[in-house]
Amino acid sequence: MSRAVEENNRRLLRARDAMDRAYAEPLDVPALAKIAGVSEAHFIRSFRATFGETPHRYLQRRRIERSMFLLRESDRSVTDVCFDVGFGSLGTFSRTFREIVGQSPLAYRRSRAPVRGAVPTCFTMAWARPSSLVEDARPRTEEKRRQTDEDVVAK
User: Fold this and answer.
1) pLDDT tens digit string along 69-114?
2) Which entry of 9, 35, 128, 149 is 20 to 30 Å from 18 by CA?
3) Taking the CA of residue 84 as centre, how many other CA atoms within 13 Å lie in the half-sphere pointing to its CB?
4) Dihedral (Cα; 106, 24, 65, 39), 10-degree rounding
5) Which of 45, 47, 39, 40 is nearest to 19 (CA)?
6) Helix, strand, or coil here: 117?
7) Is residue 55 within 8 Å of 19, Cβ to Cβ?
8) Would the pLDDT of 141 be above 70?
9) What are the tens digits of pLDDT across the range 47-77?
10) pLDDT at res. 5
11) Each residue of 10-35: b (16+ CB within 10 Å) or e?
């Protein structure tokens, strides 16, 4: 690995660490790019190439991971969890949660009993971590439109 690539990776890790630390705070690409010391466009491209997802999607996934823990381990309402992890809208939270986890926050809470004591927390969190591959498995908007058009023509 060249010295330049190594330095770029360090800068991206600084920005990712900032997202991990401050996931509940409003974070935007310009602030993260400033932490990484690069332009906004370069930051987005480099982040995706290095980590396999955009900064926005990474931040959403981190927030959803934290909300999964809170829904599993606490009695707080879904609305409280939504705002505690940094979402500004319950609708956006619910939609994003369903996209990443595959079920609504309330359905997730009902289906998961708290796991305490029997399994170390690090294993529970790793097992329950949502995959970022779910995003790639969903048809894109253009594909959805094409499928809908084909369905209409077929009828």
Assistant:
1) 999 999 999 999 999 999 999 999 999 999 999 999 999 999 876 6
2) 128
3) 14
4) 130
5) 47
6) coil
7) yes
8) no
9) 999 999 999 999 999 999 999 999 999 999 9
10) 86
11) ebbeebbebbeeebeeebebeebbeb
Q: Return d(Cα 23, Cα 72) in angstroms, integer.
A: 19
Three-point CA angle 32, 35, 41, nearest 5°: 50
Q: Which residue has the tokens 């949660």?
A: 97
Backbone angles phi, psi at 9, to 5 degrees: -65, -40
pTM, full prediction: 0.71
Q: What is the CA radius of gyration of the chain?
A: 18
Reduce the DSSP state of residue 64 to 3 states and report it.
helix
Residue with tokens 């690090």: 122
Report the candidate in 137, 73, 142 with the shortest Cα–Cα distance to residue 102.
Answer: 137
* H and E: helices and strands count for the chain: 10, 0
Token pair recorded at residue 126: 């790793």
Separation of alpha carbons 135 and 139, rounded Å:
9
- Which amino acid makes up residue 7? E
Q: How many other C-beta atoms are found inside a 10 Å radius of the C-beta of residue 131?
A: 12
Residue 120, token pair as written in the block: 């170390």
